[in-house]
Amino acid sequence: MEERVKRKTSFVKQAAILATASILVRFLGFIYRVPLTNMIGDSGNGIYSAGYYIYTFLLILSSAGLPAAISKMVSERIAVKEYRNAHRVFQSALIVSGSLGLVFAILLGVFGQQIANLSNTPESYYCILTLAPTLFIVAVMSAFRGYFQGMNTMVPTAISQIVEQVFNAFFSVYLAYLFLSYGMTGGEKNIPMGAAGGTMGTGIGALAGLLVILFSYLLIRPTIKKKVGKCRQAYEESRRETGLQLIKTAWPIIAGTAVFSITNLIDMNMVIRILENTGFPHEEALRLYGQLSGKYVTLTTLPVSISTAFATAALPSIAKSVKLKDFKQVRRKMNLTFRLSMIVSVPAAVGIGVLGDPIIHLLFPLASGGGALLTIGAVSILFLALCQTATGILQGIGHIKVPVVGAILGAIVKVILNYVLIGIPSLNVLGAVLSTTGCYLVAGVFDVVMLSRITRVKFDFMGTFFKPLVGASVMGVAALAVYHILYMLHPSNGVATIGSILFAMGIYGMVMLFIGGIAEEDLKSMPMGAKILRFLKRFRLV
Q1: Which range among 165-174, 198-207, 297-306 shows the weakest confidence by mean pLDDT?
Q2: Is this structure's pTM higher than 0.85?
Q3: Closest Cα to residue 525, out of 361, 332, 396, 364?
């Protein structure tokens, strides 16, 4: 019983650490995109996103799927005290990810202009060029992060992510400001170079994160060597064996993630090309695409990062429980992860939907277009969170090919809807938003249905979906009403928006507590949850 309590506490603690880091990282990432967007505008956002999506796709192929695979393999070996084999997995991962990262970095640097032309955004060449070295840096870092996560130690990963984003935020804004005037006279802006300054900050941030994770590894290396030296295991795995198994484990994860990345690339090419074919000039098409990628995608993926953090933290813990055949713990962790994901994602979708236009005007006063994209597409937050959470759990229990099928089905739906909807003049870029929602809906529902069939776990639909939806609905009505009341009393969009958001958060929490939508276990798993729980208990609210 005591061991079970310790495992439960460890899972909750590590999930909370990674979720806290993810919140800070995404918040910092969001914060720097605000001044960056106001500096380079929607067109600059389009150029920035074009280069960044190409980089992200190659990053996924080289290393993005590896941390999940490494953490799974390492946690499985540590569960049975095979510390030497666990360390061998890490060594193999370092060779595999480093080699792939170096190859893709060279390819991106050499063929950057051709890739930019193929993407229908030749202006993104400088962004691609500045991102090329980052591929190698992140590839090496991913091996270390996967190893730490597999040891159920999220602190080094969390700290490195925060440091990486702090450096990224500062240098992205500073270099964008610096490069905007490069080669220009008379106060004109060099938008492509300004966007490239923003992407250059990504590489500087990644280098800072790598240095932190290397330092963390050097601190615990004596302890690892001691465990490896004393380890007695029945079978010694070779680096070749662990390397091949790593690739075998990682490729479905990479493939599933890459499919969604490919849809971003397809979106980029299709949106600009279809808009141009329907009569929009290239500059206008690029501007509309910048609203889609720089505002809609940035704002809607912000809350999803929290649920993704819980799924990522759950993966090694679930894999360990599967290895030990502790299926009761597998079911408990699955339901807890889904419940936490929906408690965060449902109100985020409703809140961003009802306050889409005011939020855009608050954040981007110098580039205030695109509010309708949030109003119409906010529901995609719910489906994307559902998809990401189910994917993390499926990977943890060993069914890593299922999310690939779901992602492919979603991508097919997206491409078809893009062709049908973007070409309608009255919809234009809104068609891409609707197709994205359709993509995540299909992929998310498929993954959840398959997960239910595989595990035979009966999901708590009342606690996971219905109660958050009730709380969010009340919250949405209250937020809209408070916004209009505050605006009438004091006609300031900033005051009305911030006031309505704060009021909405309080209303959601109160309704969820009243209807029993938040349990003690949920609060303990959230950042600062223990303190919140003590406060609520003091006033007998739970």
Answers
A1: 297-306
A2: no
A3: 332
